[in-house]
Amino acid sequence: MDMKRGYYEDIQLFESNVVLFWSISFLIFIFTLPLYVPDYHFYLLNLVLVHIILAVGLNILVGYTGQISLGHAGFFAIGAYGTALLMLKMQLPFFLALPLAGFIAAFFGFILGLPALRLEGPYLSIATLGFGLTIMQIIGHWDFFGGRTGIQVPPLDIGFGFILKTDVSKYYLILIITILLVIAARNIMKTRVGRAFVAIRDSDIAAEVIGVNLTAYKTLSFAVSAFYAGIAGGLFGFVLGYFNPEPFNLILSIIFLVMVVVGGLGSILGGILGASLITILQFSLLKNIKEMPYIGDFLVAVSNRWFTVVGLENFGSIVLGLIMIGIVIFEPLGMYGVWLRIKKYWRTWPF
Amino acid sequence: MFGQLIMEGLAIGICYALFGIAVVIIYKTSEVVNFAQGEMAMLSTFVAFQILTIYQWPFWMAFIGTMIFAVLLGIFIEFAFLRPAKDPSLLGLIVITLGAEMLLMGVAGWKWGAEQKEFSLPFSFSNTHELFKGVIINDWTIAVFITAAFLMIFLFLFFRYTKLGVAMRATQQNQHAARIMGIRVERVFSFAWGFSSMIGAIAAMFFAARSTVDPAFMMEPFLRAFAAAVLGGLMSIPGVVIGGAILGLLENMFGYFWPEWKPIVAFLVIIVVLCIRPSGLFAKHYVKKV
CA angle, B201 as apex, B197 and B204 as ends, to 5°? Predict the structure, then answer.
């Protein structure tokens, strides 16, 4: 039934025709999304896509290679500033500036990967955290990067005379890049490189013994992950249109980690699910919590009695915190684990 | 001038160390890096603020009330969030404490709002004494030094001579063996979290007097304290004090000459130190068994 009889069956992109059918249906659905969804939702959808790129990239590092990073907001910022500045100051076209910014981020990822060779656990988390803060401090204090006031991104000119202005048109661009990167990540995981990453996660000493070059693959993992973060950051800049150093802080790094953990460590689907859920929660539901039916009124009443209504906007971080804790306690595989269990249940249903 | 810089750096460094001790105590017993430490202390400081300014109680009563609250908060977080997680990975533990951090931050923001509030200790900054020529020391600094010294001596005696202290060390080295020897590991964890939360609250009150109180005010000091603890090796209490002192001195020196880069000096130092000694300056590097 589910047996794999050969190596090529294991590494093929679509496991079966059923998967192929549903994948194509889903692709058609998301490409025709503007037909069913009002335009004002596309700002949120763009953010979701950007975060999906980032979460998939971070999952390569955290979920597959088992290295922790609390500095991904730094790579995200490098991507955002890199793309915008390459286009503004060097007049590079978008399709050159974006990968270039990604490679700059990857280079910094490689640099950060070097200390990571000797560090693990808490020591690695403080090193990556320090890296993220350092990047933000440099960007915030150097006038070349626009300083505290931030920078206005150039118009999104994708060549051939097309300039993307609306959120829907940006959606298509980001969607295509996202699909390419997600498929790339999926394929990386099925190659020699991906298996080396997983071997390092499961036991780095054993991996070294069977001939995995730890130096090369650990730094490579950081670089790939940073590349994804850089691309995501570059697109993020265009989604916002205008940005300053403020959002790229430690909390953002934590939220990226939350996306990966909530979605499911070590699975591409998990990154996608987690990024979608957390982004929608953060930017849509929890932002307008007072307008939510029933719950909103109740929370306002509670706030008046024991808390302050002004502080109700902080309710979002309470929910996120509870989600993080709950996921680790009840379902360490995250939403991907829930998905697996649902699938297992229905496979033999009704028996 | 130079003496004054050293004095101020040392004072803030010891303050980092005080808070770092709280991090170290939890790591020493349960090998959890507690990212929620800063926010636990922040919430306790808010309780102190509430008692002092809203209820207008005298300081010593506020202090006792805060200490009780801090201990209960620490025990609660360990009991509610850490204990139910069965066999969590290191990343899982970090995510739980990060979640607790966001949770507590949200609660504090909900209750007290984001605006900055004044918090004052009985030890003022304006009451100064001239130790040597050109070196001025204020009451706050003296209080920090005395607290740190007492705490150091107490912890040294505690970990060496009391049964509970030895039990904590045993738990850190091997949980299962400690359990077999009759140590109630869960109680040791509860105690460690409560105790560490209390020390954190004391340190946070010093920080609060130095700046203002708002839901994010412990973020920076926590990162510095954590950095100091990592510098000292996360395991040894003298290590974290020396690490904190080094950090405070370096930061103050840099802050004087290049004020713009003050916030990142600490982390650059940490990264460089970790590259050379991956387990910090004062910890023995345990080789992991396969």
Answer: 135
Whole-angstrom Cα distance, residue A29 to residue B270? 49
Q: How many domains are contained in chain A?
A: 1
For B166-206, how does the pLDDT look when each residue is reduced to its tens digit (9 = 90+)? 898 888 888 888 889 888 888 899 999 999 999 999 999 88
Amino acid at B136: I
Query: In sequence order, what are the beta bridge partners of B128?
Result: B138
Cβ contact, residue pair A125, B227, below 8 Å: no
- HSE, side-chain direction, 13 A CA sphere, residue A263: 31
Q: Which of A141, A311, A332 sits opposite B109 (nearest CB)?
A: A311
Cβ atoms B264, A133 nearer than 8 A: yes
**Listed residue (A245, A283, A240, A292) closest to A48, CA to CA:** A283
- What is the tens place of the pLDDT at every residue in A315-330? 888 888 898 888 888 8
- How distant is the Cα of A73 from the closest Cα of chain B, in angstroms? 16
- Please give the torsion angle defined by the CA atoms of residues B6, B216, A279 and A179, in that order, rounded to the nearest 10 degrees: 0
Question: What domain range includes position B89?
Answer: 2-110+119-218
Of B52, B208, B40, B47, whose CA–CA distance to B140 is shortest?
B208
Is A314–B99 a contact, with Cβ atoms under 8 angstroms apart? no
- Tell me whether residues B110 and A318 touch, CB distance under 8 A: yes
Q: What is the value of ipTM here, to two decimals? A: 0.84
Question: What's the domain range around A79?
Answer: 36-250
> Which of residues 210 through 249 in chain A touch B, CB cutoff 8 A?
none
pLDDT, position B285: 55
Domain count, chain B: 1
Is residue B284 a part of any domain in this protein? no
The DSSP result for A110-173, as a single string, is: HHHHHHHTT--THHHHHHHHHHHHHHHHHHHH-GGGTGGG-EEPPPEE-STT-EE-SHHHHHHH
Chain B CB contacts of A67 under 8 Å are: none
Q: B98: Cβ–Cβ under 8 A, 6 or more apart, which residues?
A: A254, A257, A258, A324, B35, B36
B28 neighbourhood in chain A, CB within 8 Å: none
Which H helix or E strand runs over B129?
A: strand B128-132
Structural domain contains residue B147: yes
Q: Quick check: is A91 in a domain? A: yes
In a domain, B290, yes or no: no
Query: Exposure pattern of A199-230 as b/e (b: 16+ CB <10 Å)?
Result: bbbeebeebeeeebeeeebbbbbbbbbbbbbb
How does DSSP classify residue B132? E
Count of CB pairs separated by less than 8 Å, A with B: 160
What is the bridge-based pairing of β-strands B128-132 and B135-138?
antiparallel
* Chain A interface disruption, residue of B43, B111, B271, most A CBs within 10 A: B271
Torsion angle, alpha carbons of A62, B196, A322, A253, to 10: -40
Quick check: is B102 in a domain?
yes
